[in-house]
Amino acid sequence: DNVNQIDWARKSEYFDVFEYYKKLIQLRKNHPAFRIANAELIRKNLNFCIQYKMGVISYCIEGKSVGDSWGRIIMVFNANQQQVSVPLPEGNYRFIASGSEINESGFGDFVSDEVKVEAVSMTILVAAK
Q1: pLDDT per residue over 18-62, tens digit each?
Q2: Mind listing the pLDDT tens digit for each residue in 55-86?
Q3: Which residues contact 24 (CB under 8 A, 6 or more apart)?
Q4: Nearest CA among 84, 79, 107 for reference residue 95
């Protein structure tokens, strides 16, 4: 497939992208919330818990209900060319992914009222225990 094939000869040139994808794949393997295969479970445990903003897709997954060690997981995808502030549901959240950083143990300060999401990026937050 000339369009979608991976050009492994360019791995060293884009090693940061390779490492990012590797972490995303590991995150998916480690957390059942990112592998829900049943449509009914998706309908019950995924909801659009954040008010819509132009160019932003965000939703919550109730991880514990699908066998994950994490409770509420918030996914925010910003397609805008500038940073956006997104209001959060009630609670305290820790960063799992933001910009080019992914850490399943969490990083940075906890957030509670809103989160700033970098331009053209994804942020994953998990409810504090």
Answers
A1: 999 999 999 999 999 999 999 999 999 999 999 889 999 999 999
A2: 999 999 999 999 999 999 999 999 999 999 99
A3: 102
A4: 107
| Ramachandran category for residue 4: left, alpha or beta (phi over 0 → left; psi -120 to 50 → alpha) | alpha
